[in-house]
Amino acid sequence: MTWRHWLLALAVMAVWGSNFVVIKWGLAELPPLLLATLRFALAAVPLVFVLPRPPVGWGNLAAYGVLIGVGQFGLLFLAMRGLISPGLASLVVQLQAFFTMGLALLLAGERPRRYQLVAVGIALAGMGVIAFHTDGDTTVAGLLLVALAGFCWAAGNMVSRAAARGVAPVNMLAYVVWSSLFAVPPLLVLSLVLEGWPRIAHSLVHASGGAWVSVAWQAWGNSVLGYGAWAWLLGRYQAASIAPMSLLVPVFGMGASAWLLAEPLPPWKLAAAALVLLGLALNAGWPVLRARLRGVAW
């Protein structure tokens, strides 16, 4: 991966990590499924009238939209409405990195290299440290919902990679925008059935400016820019090289929560973050270091 593409991936991780704080703000005023519906509706409109439909099948667009919209964020928002804390949610959803590598192995025959497995193991140790320090805000149902959201994210990664590696070049920003159209109908139906029109109407009427900023940030910053760049990177590099980058999300998530929500950062959290960063550094830097060492005359 080039350093520019690595910086792009890092920026996406910063956006996604800080988004857990933004989600928390939005869920304070809007029901979870309604929040997800508004997010993907705003991600699609008005850009869907500007960007041409990407040259991929409708089935691919629908699969990505449903997997990311309903599967990942619908489940994540439901869990974050009192079933799991934002910091831990930002960690558990990163199981998608391992799900993505596993699906790439099963579906595409990609085999991660030894140093990548070691890097993921180190980062997984950091995630384990956080998982063993749960609190009263976390439930088994919340953990399961977010883990399932991570699997849906991984499946969406594979769908977007198939689109990006097709015969015709694909504008991944347009891909994210058009696929968002398919997330809205099922999310809206689920919101009407599970949350009810009276609650929806009351939330829309009484939502503050901050709630709408939360919706806009998730739609444009997180979905359009973040997922557009992420899908583009997945189309250029092997999943084993890209997927572990998402392990930075809980680091940014904990930092944003400490800064904006005044959540404490005890030593165990800092140690866990250090392990995650070490794993990412090994994954990104080992090929360059190995090449330089081979060029040194001992």
Enumerate how many helices there are, as a single number: 13
Largest sheet composition: none
Beginning-to-end CA distance, first to last residue: 28 Å
Q: Could you tell me the radius of gyration in angstroms?
A: 19 Å
Number of strands: 0
Any idea how many domains? 1
Helix/strand-derived category reads: mainly alpha
What portion of the residues fall into strands of 2 or more residues?
under 5%
Spans of at least 5 consecutive residues whose pLDDT stays below 50 are none
Determine the mean pLDDT.
85
Provide the helix percentage: over 70%
Identify the overall geometry.
Answer: globular
Q: List the secondary-structure elements in sequence, H or E.
A: HHHHHHHHHHHHH
Question: Would you mind describing this structure in some detail?
Answer:
This protein is mainly alpha-helical and 298 residues long. The chain has one domain. It is 77% helix and 0% strand. It has helices at residues 3-27, 32-44, 58-80, 86-92, 96-108, 114-131, 140-164, 172-194, 197-206, 209-236, 239-242, 249-260, 267-294. The relative contact order is 0.21.
Summarize the structure.
With 298 residues, this protein is mainly alpha-helical. Helix content is 77%, strand content 0%.
Reconstruct the topology from this structure.
Blueprint: H1 3-27, H2 32-44, H3 58-80, H4 86-92, H5 96-108, H6 114-131, H7 140-164, H8 172-194, H9 197-206, H10 209-236, H11 239-242, H12 249-260, H13 267-294
Name its key features.
globular, 298 residues, 77% helix, mainly alpha
